Amino acid sequence: MNYQKVLFYIIFVFGLVIATILPFFLSISIADYSHENWNNRNLASNITGDSLYYNNTYFNFKSPKHLNVFDVRTNNYNIQVLLTTLQGLVNRKNVSLFLIYRESDLFWLKQLKKLHNVSYTILNGTFLDVISLYNNSIEGLVIYDRNFLATVNVATFIAGINNCIVIDNTLISNLSTIGIHNIKYDLREQFYSNVDLYSWAWKNFNQFATKKMVCSLDPTKPYFRDYIVATKMFTFYLQGGPLGSIEEINLLKYILSQYPNNIPVFGWFTDPAGPLGEYESVKILSKLGKYSLCAAIPDLTVFSSIKNVSLKQKYNAFNLSDYKIEDKVYITFIVSDGDNVNYCSDKLLEYWNDPNRGAVPIGITLEPAMFKIFPTSLEFYYQNATNNEYFIAGPSGAGYCYVDLNPAFPQFLNQSKYAMTMADMHQVWLLNGYESYQLKYSSNVINAYSSNNLNITGIYLNYHDFPAELNYLSNNIPVFQSIFVERENEILGKLQSINLVRHGPTFIFIGYWAWDFSFTKIKNVVNQLGDDFVILRPDQFSKIYLKYRSSLNNRSMNELITFIIYGIIPLISVASGLVLFWYFYSFKKKIEDIKEIKMDILNKLIFFSVDTQFLLIIRMCFYSTILNLFYFLIFMIGLTIGIYLKKYLDRLFGNKVNLINALILFVIGGILFYFSPKLIFCSGISIGILLNHQIQFNSSGFNGKNHGKIKSFIYSIVFASALILLFPIEYYPYLFLILIILSFLFIILGIKSFIKYQDKVILTQVDNIKNWYFKGVFLGLLLFLLISPTFAPQRLFYYLFWGTENFPTNLSLSFLLSALYLVGILILELLEIYDIKIKNKKYLIIIFVIGIILYILMPLIANGILFFVLSFSIFIIGILLIIDYFFNNFKFIRIGVSNNFIAEKKGLSGFTAQLSFWLMIGLFLIFVPPSIIIADTQDIFATIGISSIGQITWPSYFWAFFYIPPIQYILIIPTTIGILIYGIISLFI
User: CATH 1.20.1250 residue ranges in the chain?
Assistant: First the structure.
């Protein structure tokens, strides 16, 4: 037997180690909250506008008077690369060569002539004729490997520092005919991976590269290489995560770390996750003090040479003093992705010719740095805009970065002020992350953007699917939360759902996805909205909102009073009541047995720390990016293995040894996860073992009248949820660290008496498998309903209090919700103390159903905080009563006292697994809105060739239905409806 124990233990440890280190081969990071701690600094105190930055950073090409133009659209890739690198050599000294890759290039060429009197001549003939025209600029050739196309990036960079052009070996003989045959570098058959290639290039040539900028460019793109050659810019194309090669990601981080702060990273990034890799890539460069400048466009050496352009937007006369604010929905539409200069130079031009442009007021994001690198584009849009177009700075000012992650933010803000001033932009769209959830903006950063030094009149936040918070003022500057949309009927549905729940004037910022936008679509939407909706330009929208907020006297004082009355006072009152209740009905009655009291307290504290860490890990998995669901999957696997593994470990080692190991592993797993989220499996397996143990060995929440009841598990979960709710999201790492420290102390203090007490418990299985399966599923769903508002307070906040004049702050709502959860527990305990029982199952069902209905209908009929308190209390009590009934009336285990411990027979592990599994399914749906799942599923089918599914157009009421948050429950009902019906019927049998 000892041999079996040792062997099993070795296998267990080996398996745990393998599963733990496996995530190190993946690059996903969970909830990377680390950002600069500005310590209440005034980040805008020295912001005057950095004019020197743009002159010192960007290459000052000499403005052309005449251009030779060659159309390369009919040439293949290798000729395009050859001519583009030639263009860089030529234009570095004297801007004179322009290449046409797209129809839009020809358009901008004509604008150069129209706006800046730059004449041009169209060159006829072949590419050899063009090279012959400039062969005096060429000092040699760099050959790339056509079988490993990444070499074209390194070849382009090397060509720039050696005055060469980049060539495919099949063209060498052609150039020999015109006397060009000096091969400086041949990169063929030397490299077989991106890491080897770019590491070699960096090691051998980085000292010759400009340190003012760097480039990440897809090797399949022939254009923009003129700018790389002219500026001698190091160029790579490495995966930025989250599913990319860890070696490539590490090399990317290393290369970027070798550059000074606050430089532009031209181009874009690659990742197997496709567009979803954007979040991790931008997070990497932001944390390294850089920003993305997505400006890898053709002929940038020409466009950036234009100087001394005066840029002025058209401003629509607007008499704010006479404007009457009515009980309506005020909307501003703003088109995204303007930070992408490639979009501005090409795709936006397609939209610009829409005959319905100008029919509806709209905002359009543009990159303010174009005043320096592409002023002709800004000049064209400004001059040709109607009075209904207004331009704001795309994320997040001078370039695209996540502002709270950028340690060089003050410098970035300084250059943003100058760029926005030069581009005549006075409003900005900020991002602090991507996907469904984003890092909360620090007050220091928002205060900096809204300070008088920047002269910004409006700030727009995020790509949220719904507003995470209400709009607010910072330094008397409006700050708006987004409703991001990608489809025409999605706008209608979301606005209609908002119109159902709003109370009073409501201000909505609609962020429209640029790649499926058109002016006609906006017009079609507006035509269907009706008289309750008012459409405004962003500058008018912000002024009217400011007037509206100014009419609400003493708003800040009202919010403070609201926080005290609706937040602090209820929480303190209920918490005090619970403490007194516990003292009088538990501690005081058992004062004679102080040892048992101490053990019981430590027991509760240990499991409370387990449950809090359990829920906190789930929350952290979902916060950073949807792609971290992969780690959530690893956590679930570890949790499930731990649940099922417990009974085998109990039989092999005994409950005492197994529990000690699980508790130690729990603390170790927490420490490992804190320092590296990749070690999440270790936490998962230990929590799984302890959750199973908790359900087996729990006692009542306060040792009230009926000592020994198993519902303590529910109490612990509710307490843990309330605690998590009280911590702002950005402080979760600190809460996690506190939990680790406390868990360690609890275990050190309580493990001896804890194990001694548990040795007396004997469990014998009395239920069969079909009963625990249903009960686990049903209780898991009930737990999901119970704690879902705790995990998504922002949604409740938005839908319950949108537009009301006296609304709770986000923080006060958290305090109030916590108090209501504690009230629910207090009521259940009081019912037990006074032996008040709701015996009739029908009444229980009625209370439960009323609670659910009230919760669903709250957004539709709520008109004050008192209704919210009443309805939400009934919701909580209804769920707690039905859970309490289940725990009291189905005996899935029988508990007795014995000197010997007998491990449970089959069944209880399955019960725990089902409960946890269905709880997590519910939590998953909290963080991923149902409409997004359905719409994205359409897109997935469309991308694999089933285009008919992707073309399905959902009616607007579909979006309205799914954007009332409690309705999200409907997604789990199709898969569990049979179980729910069976469960409800079984209550009456």
Answer: 2-30+558-928
